[in-house]
Amino acid sequence: MSDFTRADGRSAQQLRPLRFQNHIAPHAAGSTLIEWGKTRVICAVTVEENVPRWMKEQKVTGGWLTAEYSMLPYSTLDRKPRDISKGRLDGRSSEIQRLIGRSIRAAVDLEKLGARTLCIDCDVLQADGGTRTAAITGTFVALALAVNKLIAEKKLAVNPLLKPVAAASVGIVEGRALLDLCYTEDVAATVDMNLVMNAAGEFIELQGSGEEATFTDAQLAELLAAGKSGIRELLVAQQTAIAQG
After folding, report:
1. How far is 7 from 10, CA to CA, in rounded Å?
2. Edge-first strand listing for the sheet containing 117-126
3. Which of 90, 126, 144, 158 is exposed most, by the fewest CB atoms within 10 A?
């Protein structure tokens, strides 16, 4: 299995090419365009100097972080109608933006953030699998850039960031455990899984299911090992992107 290659020439345990283009949204406090294979997502963080009403009513101290996710109409082969045209957020988008919010809140000490809200917007320009993992991985870069700006402007006295967070997809396709599935692999996968982890190797979220199939302990261990390896690479790439400012 070591000589196995995929349709795009990658090995089973190889990430797609990854690139960050920072400051793609100049009016945001921090932003980046993450290009991960053919998947492209703009991740932006804006700052509101207030907190949600429920925090005030419940006398919850510190700040808050919220996320929104959308796929632009031209991001897929067939045009995807905007949620606003349907009058509601579709279930998939709602699930993904809650995932992004949970994942990134795990990277922030909300008490140190102060009474402000960080608003995350993830907009998918092109989808070829792994949009949620790209959104989470790109958002941490945008978040770090936003925090650095707040510190430079003396709006934050201490850095509220905890351990960096990244996410990767894994799955079983034709009996093989693959890292970082593109769309055609995702569709063909008998097992599909997303991992969100921090730099300490701790899990934040683990989403996995058999697609009309089952999987064994050994296969789960193989998927987790592949995902952890990929996330370690992603964390290095994130830090390189953040250091470039």
Report:
1. 7
2. 18-22, 30-36, 39-48, 117-126, 64-71
3. 158
With respect to residue 53, please indicate whether it lies within any of the assigned structural domains. Answer: yes
pLDDT at 221 over 80: yes
Identify whether 7 is part of a domain: no
- In the numeric block, which tokens belong to residue 174? 């034709």
Average pLDDT over residues 42-58: 96
Any idea of the CA torsion for 221, 224, 226, 230, to the nearest 10 degrees?
Answer: -160
Give CA torsion, residues 93, 97, 102, 104, to 10 deg.
140
**Which residue, 205, 206, 201, 177, is CA-closest to 191?**
177
Q: How many residues does the chain have?
A: 245
Residue 68 has a CB neighbour count (10 Å cut-off) of 16
Residue 100 has, within 13 A of its CA and on its CB side, a CA count of: 34
End-to-end CA gap in the chain: 40
Total of domains in the chain: 1
The CATH number of the domain holding residue 222 is 3.30.230.70
What is the average per-residue pLDDT within 45-73?
95
Distance CA 198, CA 141 (A): 13
- In the prediction, which pLDDT does 80 show? 83
Cα–Cα distances in angstroms (integers) from residue 92 to residues 89, 98, 167, 219, in the given order: 8, 10, 18, 27
